[in-house]
Please model this.
Amino acid sequence: MLQIKGISKQYRTGELVQQALNDVSLNLRDNEFVSILGPSGSGKTTLLNVIGGLDRYDAGDLVINGISTKEYKDRDWDAYRNHTIGFVFQSYNLIPHQTILANVELALTIGGISRNDRRERARKALEEVGLGDQLHKKPNQMSGGQMQRVAIARALVNDPEVLLADEPTGALDSETSIQVMELLKKVAGNRLVVMVTHNSELARQYSTRIVKLRDGRVTDDSDPFLPEETPEGAGHKRMGKAKMSFLTSLSLSFNNLWTKKGRTILTAFAGSIGIIGIALILALAEGVNGYISDIQKSTMTSYPITISSQSVDMSGIMGARGGRWENEVSAEGNRTRVYADYSAIESSEEMASNIKENNLTAFKEYLDNPESEIHQYLGENGVVYSYGAHFGIYSYDADGNLVASDADIDQVSVSTLSSEDSAAGGGPAANMERMNQVMSGSSDL
Ligand code: ADP
Ligand code: MG
Model:
């Protein structure tokens, strides 16, 4: 039994306050077919939504089976909507991409019933509304009357105590309207049906009680009901689970994604663009780093620091010889005397004095010691040892003469000087040639 006690409801849109329900009181029996009639905007839909727990009232009370809903929590409302109420809307509200069987089944998935059980009950509900042979059609393959019957099957599959219908025939022609009304009358045989309608003809023909609304007030009631106060043992019946199991919601989500494959793939791709971008930038940076270190490595190999067993202080040699030569040039004008040229002796002396022996044994020990700090400065190629042995390569030239084809040894023949030039002294060019002779280990002087 539902008792509506002095319920008021206002809608506020900005400045405008709309009184949708104004102190409405109504008691509904457990088993009757109530039609609510009234002009548009009189509050019929609002009243139905309040009864069904879809909307909240501002003032008054809704008493369900003797229990006030003033203290209801969200969970209680969920359970009430799920187990006590079935809804039928004017616009059917079916899910277009699912078969009608799946649509009806969906109303049961929330109740936590096993899959086979659900299928069986959905099939039975559809058979009851005369659609047992069209289970696998989609809503858009059906007529309006058939869709409304699917909606009624969906509302009834949970076997609710109350069926609420908001203008169920509003979008139907008179013939299909009659079919739907017949169905609702049958349904009302063992439960409470509250139907909102514009059609007073149909209301009078099929319902057992007519309530008229105007401006949010009840103006007429054809069969008022005044129960004695709070019946004994009143309480909520069948308040069960009103939650989907995790697996059910997961499979519903996948089903939904699967029916919109293209969009899902596009969305997934769009979502991953950011990740792809970051991955690309990281890959690029990594690649460039690798390239730079490769270039560094190969450049460094062609410019190694070479440490040989002997070293020559070139600047020492140049400085000493250059200075002495200058003096000799200044004295050149007068050739009346014979000068002894000690330059060759001096240069080899200087050479010898500027050659230093490196202590390679100690240096190698230093390099081999894993604790020496040199290791942090070594490049990728590390330390390479080689022996200073020269193997000259000789071959015959076009005239049949034996020549050295190795560049170092070839210098011997290239750097041959005329004795005249060296006697004449000469400037820095001659000096350079002398250097060549010294370095290649031969002299024409
Ligand atoms: P009926 O179903 O009888 O045509 P309703 O119950 O839908 O009437 O609406 C009653 C009044 O409340 C109307 O004046 C309507 O404009 C107003 N109303 C209904 N729903 C809302 C809402 N969500 N927001 C603001 N006003 C609303
Ligand atoms: Mg309405």
User: Anything to note?
Assistant: The mean pLDDT is 81. DSSP finds 15 helices and 14 strands in the chain. Residues 112 and 204 are 39 Å apart (CA to CA). The pocket of adenosine-5'-diphosphate (ligand 1) is lined by residues 11, 13, 18, 20, 38, 40-46 (CB under 6 Å).
